[in-house]
Design goal:
Blueprint (H helix, E strand, L loop, with lengths): L1 E9 L7 H19 L2 E9 L18 H13 L1 H23 L5 E4 L2 E4 L5 H17 L3 E8 L7 H10 L4 E6 L3 H8 L6 E4 L7 H5 L9 E5 L5 H4 L6 H17 L3 E5 L4 H14 L13 H9 L3 E4 L2 H9 L4 E4 L3 H9 L6 E2 L6 H14 L3 H19 L4
Parallel strand pairs: 1-2, 1-3, 3-5, 4-5, 5-6, 6-7, 8-9, 8-10, 10-11, 11-12
Helix pairs in contact: 1-15, 3-4, 4-5, 9-10, 9-14
């Protein structure tokens, strides 16, 4: 048997627990595929955005003259392009150095999945990915992306250009996506030898991996919240105050119908603070809010106690699906829409124009009544295993 070491790169230390769950699930699938293919070795987890390389926020100075502060801001805006170029150049060198050290002795690099093929948010992501692939090229290590989210394309954006160049590097052999295959194939891919395909997010195996099953006797509906400014941040005119009202009115309607529910979040503190605002609006006590999960294992166990789920975070939806708990999504980003389409229930993933109280509650109760087609769930999960098996086969 051949001994080897796979470098698995992902957002392992993110505050949103969906990302560490992706890493844990992908690692599990990699080790399973290695065993099946007779490959002895280990999976080394490498953090995509290590704290040591994150850009530190400058502390605001107190008592500054407002006019001087405004003039200073104007000067910074005029210098923005140059400063961005310098900053990203420094970042690139720092990440390249980081990966040269971390990838020592590795035979294969796998990006674990999640929303990695994006450029509009998390500036460091594309720089880090580019650095890893550059280091891989120096060392002659093959690279694969597993079930990554593809979030838009802009040929004039520097970050998008950097991602496209990295993806088409000769060392990158496989790219699978959990969502926008059309943009991946028509916009990002330009090299003939690059294999691309669709694959389910690794977290569809969350329940199985952790040995957690849904509570079949539960009558509790889970209400998964998200930070209040998320819709505005992603270009939708839906304010935090309006989102509080939407959630709050849903809770009131469920209460009118005699349905039991609890609010929960994916571990991200701003989501939890938003949940407290919803409770205040609805006039409900803290007992209606589950404590903030501190690990992905705890989050999976929380969700397993629900009969059905209404959520806005993608991985609250994916965890529910992994446990065959019907879920309805409130979409602030296309990735939730794609998940609904891929799992055969696009009607359960609602756009902001569909966010009326009656419509949301009706969809949640209908989803609970209908459940899932187990054979369809099984087929969808297999696409993730197939992607990982193809990736591990690069070692042979």
């Amino acid at each position: 048997m051949n001994k080897t070491k796979i470098a698995m790169i992902g957002l392992n230390n993110a505050k949103n627990l969906g990302d560490p769950l992706i890493c844990a699930s992908t690692k599990y699938l990699l080790k399973s595929a290695m065993k099946e293919q007779g490959i002895e070795g280990e999976v080394k987890v490498i953090d995509l955005l290590p704290d040591s390389l994150k850009k530190k926020k400058k502390q605001k100075k107190q008592g500054r003259n407002p006019l001087k502060a405004w003039l200073s801001k104007c000067r910074r805006l005029f210098q923005f392009a140059k400063e961005l170029q310098i900053r990203q150049s420094d970042m690139q060198e720092a990440y390249l150095s980081y990966y040269r050290k971390e990838l020592e002795g590795c035979s294969l690099i796998v990006f674990a999945g999640g929303g990695l093929i994006k450029y509009a948010q998390q500036e460091n992501l594309n720089v880090s990915i580019s650095g890893a692939i550059h280091a891989a090229k120096e060392k002659g290590i093959p690279v694969a992306f597993h079930a990554c989210g593809v979030e838009g394309y802009d040929k004039g954006n520097p970050g998008c250009k950097r991602l496209k160049a990295a993806i088409n590097d000769e060392n990158v052999k496989i790219v699978t996506t959990r969502d926008d295959f059309k943009t991946l194939s028509e916009c990002y891919k330009k090299r003939e030898g690059l294999y691309i395909a669709k694959a389910a997010d690794s977290a569809v195996f969350a329940g199985e991996i952790l040995g957690v099953k849904k509570d079949e006797a539960s009558l509790l509906i889970g209400i998964g919240v998200i930070r209040g400014d998320i819709f505005e941040n992603y270009g939708t005119r839906l304010s935090e105050s309006r989102l509080v009202e939407i959630y709050g009115e849903v809770l009131k309607k469920l209460k009118e119908k005699g349905r039991e529910f609890k609010l929960f979040c994916n571990g991200y503190k701003p989501d939890y603070l938003f949940a407290e605002k919803v409770l205040e609006f609805a006039g409900l006590e803290e007992a209606y809010l589950l404590k903030r999960a501190e690990s992905h294992e705890e989050l999976v166990r929380q969700i397993s106690g629900f009969q059905g789920v209404l959520a806005a975070r993608l991985h609250a939806c994916i965890i529910s699906y992994s446990l065959e708990i019907p879920v309805v999504g409130l979409c602030w980003n296309d990735k939730l829409k794609y998940f609904g389409e891929e799992t055969g229930h696009p009607e359960r993933f609602l756009s902001p124009e569909d966010f009326s109280t009656e419509n949301i509650v009706e969809h949640v109760l209908k989803a609970i009544e209908e459940g899932y087609d187990r054979e369809a769930v099984k087929r969808y999960k297999e696409t993730s295993k197939d992607s990982i098996s193809r990736i591990v086969a690069l070692l042979k």
